[in-house]
Amino acid sequence: MTFTKTLAVSALALALAACQAVPTREAPVAAPAEPAPTAQLAPAAGPGHNDNLNAVAWVQASLEYRLLAGQTFRSALYQLDRALKTPDWDALTPDERLAPAAGLPPAVIVDIDETVLDNSPYQARLVRDGAFYDEVTWDAWVREEKAKPVPGALEFAQAAAARGVTVFYLSNRAAHLEEPTLANLRELGFPIQSGDQFLGLGFFVDDCEQEGSEKGCRRKHVSKTHRVLMQFGDQIGDMVTISANTPAGREQAMAPYAGWIGERWFVLPNPTYGSWEPALFNNAWTLPEAERRQMKLDALDYAE
């Protein structure tokens, strides 16, 4: 399937003209006057420098992003048919599998934001307004129900449902955003037979203590009733619990399951935000922006 996007680009040209008096023959030519000071143009109104500009522009404007997302879901569909034919295929880690998978109906677990729904317009607004994420503006965006599908996500979800696979939408959207979230998904055509398929932040699971926004308890909840064939997300926490959100801790959490990437676990590209970012500044969002930015600069590899 081909995804196209047209960018409209406008340009404004300024023409400056100058007039010079011509002396008559009757009058002596006056000495040239001192040139008038050049008028200083006011800086153009608009957003200032923003570290997220390139990331958001890449998601919205690059063909490469659409190709990457599309090929992820196309590859997953091929693996899905393999998984359905393989009775012991399971995409949950052993510690999150509470009931034997054999004989359970099949399911896939998908994250929502930047995995099946594209929220780049919200990120673009933050760039335009020189703002940062906050719950008020985020809630308002979700309630607009304007998010579009990530390329390939809708087609995959519909194909999975056609094969009898239940799609669980495991998201860190707050529970009070369930209604507009499901409305947005349904309007786009994502398969949702029951509100039970939405497992938002705050979803309570018996005998499981959720750590912050980690999704392990909710994955365990799905494991009681379904054999999970695949998981999809734009962050590794969408598939495995991260004990320590540091670069080393993230590597450690993923290492045992690296062979599942592209087979049972599928990672979508998201350069605009994610737990990878605070891992670079010790998860200290209370630090001033300049300090957080310097710590990210310090994390760069200059090959020196």
Describe the structure.
There is one protein chain. The protein has nine helices and seven strands, in the order ααββααβαβαβαβαβα. The chain is an alpha/beta fold. Strands 5-4-1-6-7 form a five-stranded parallel beta sheet, sandwiched between helices. It has a two-stranded antiparallel ribbon with strand order 2-3. Helix 8 links the parallel strand 6 and strand 7 (265-267). Helix 1 (53-61) packs across helix 2 (63-84) and helix 1 (53-61) packs antiparallel against helix 3 (120-129). The chain starts with 52 loop residues before the first helix and ends in a 6-residue tail after the last helix.
Compute the number of helices: 9
Shape category = globular
Query: Which band does the percent of strand residues land in?
Result: 5-15%
What order do the SSEs take from the amino end to the carboxyl end, as H and E?
HHEEHHEHEHEHEHEH
What are the segments in which pLDDT stays under 50 over at least 5 consecutive residues?
Answer: 1-43
Helix vs. strand class: alpha/beta
Number of strands: 7
Strand order of the largest sheet: 5-4-1-6-7
Main β-sheet description: 5 strands, parallel
Report, as a whole number of angstroms, the end-to-end distance: 44 Å
Task: Give the mean pLDDT.
Answer: 87
Radius of gyration, in angstroms, nearest whole number: 26 Å
Helix content percent band: 25-40%
